[in-house]
Structure formats: structure tokens, C-alpha cells
């Protein structure tokens, strides 16, 4: 049985939801998992985990600095254990090349080359934004050709079947 640590960084909460979903899939397959928001849990990987899946969201063209710092600090551990990265961005929904480039930049910054990477679409959470951010996000969506500009509702683009496959592929490698 694997004991998987799932530290993540999130700005608007979708990466946290994906981390919890991954944890649920791990548990459904008879393994143990623990999610941890890096901002609250700190930047250490506890000793009792035998594998790690790091989650990070992309905002303004890059992953969170504190996730980068976490990976840099724990690079040796991440390289010695089965580990993976999942990256959450709107680019994964509309421009996979951009999503891959974000991960490439993250790998360059951290020096960590995860053996498995998941690229997951995020969400536009209009109802959670303040007035200005709602207008900015609507403009960005419109400029990208999206019809999802009704600010009275939220749009979740995460493909949960893809998250399940990513997790199951990871579990197959951990065994």
C-alpha cells in the first residue's frame, strides 16, 4: 500500500479541489493519501510518505513562487521517491502548448524533472471575484474566443476523467 503526500499551491481553490479528488481516487484504490496546502503545511515533506504528487496553479503566466520554493527545497526527496506534478491552468483548456511551456519554465526554475506530469484545466469562478477581477476575467475569456462570459455563473473546465487516469497511472508506477 502506497502512502502518498499531495502538497499543492492554489490561488482560487481549483487546484485544492483537484488535489482532494486525487486523494479520493488514491483512497478508492486502497492506498493512503494526505493533501496539504503548502501555505499552511509548510515546506517539508514528512518522512512517513513514500511518494509525492505536487500540485500548482498558473497565474499571470507562472506557477506560484512558494510552490517553486517548496520544490527547490525538496528536490532531493522528490527525485528519490516516486513523484509527479500536476499543473492547473486555463491554458490546458485552450492552448496546450502554453500549458507545456509553463511546466517547462517551472522545471528550469526548480531543476526538478518529474517523471509524470498532468496538465489540467482550471476554472473561471466569476461569482467569487470582485467587480474588477470579474471584468478582467470576462475580457480575457472574450479575447480568447470563449463564449463563457456570463459573469453570473462559474465555469469549471477540469476534466475529472483525465485526473482519474493521471492518478491511476501514478499508482501503477508506485506499485
Structural write-up:
By secondary structure, this protein is α/β, with parallel strands linked by helices. It has two domains: 3-122 and 158-174, Rossmann fold (3-Layer(aba) Sandwich); 125-156, no CATH class. Helix content is 46%, strand content 23%. The protein has helices spanning 14-28, 38-41, 65-73, 75-80, 91-94, 96-110, 131-143, 160-174; strands spanning 3-9, 32-37, 51-59, 62-63, 83-89, 117-121, 123-124, 155-156. The strands form two sheets. Strands 1, 2, 3, 4, 5 and 6 form a six-stranded mixed beta sheet that branches. Strands 7-8 form a two-stranded antiparallel ribbon. Strand 3 and strand 4 form a beta hairpin. Helix 1 packs across helix 8. The longest helix is centred in the first third of the chain and has 15 residues, at 14-28. It starts with a strand and ends with a helix.
Amino acid at each position: 500500500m502506497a502512502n502518498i503526500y499531495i502538497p499543492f499551491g492554489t490561488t482560487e481553490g481549483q487546484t485544492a479541489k483537484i488535489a482532494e479528488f486525487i486523494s479520493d481516487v488514491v483512497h478508492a484504490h486502497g492506498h493512503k493519501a494526505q493533501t496539504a496546502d503548502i501555505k499552511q503545511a509548510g515546506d517539508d515533506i514528512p518522512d512517513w510518505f513514500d511518494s509525492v504528487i505536487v500540485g500548482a496553479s498558473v497565474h499571470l503566466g507562472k506557477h506560484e513562487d512558494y510552490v517553486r520554493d517548496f520544490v527547490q527545497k525538496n528536490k532531493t526527496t522528490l527525485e528519490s521517491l516516486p513523484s509527479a506534478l500536476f499543473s492547473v491552468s486555463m491554458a490546458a483548456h485552450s492552448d496546450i502548448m502554453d500549458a507545456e511551456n509553463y511546466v517547462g519554465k517551472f522545471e528550469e526554475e526548480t531543476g526538478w524533472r518529474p517523471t509524470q506530469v498532468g496538465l489540467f484545466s482550471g476554472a473561471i469562478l466569476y461569482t467569487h471575484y470582485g467587480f474588477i477581477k470579474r471584468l478582467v476575467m470576462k475580457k480575457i475569456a472574450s479575447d480568447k474566443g470563449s463564449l463563457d462570459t456570463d459573469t453570473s455563473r462559474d465555469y469549471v473546465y477540469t476534466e475529472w476523467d483525465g485526473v482519474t487516469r493521471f492518478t491511476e497511472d501514478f499508482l501503477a508506477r508506485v506499485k
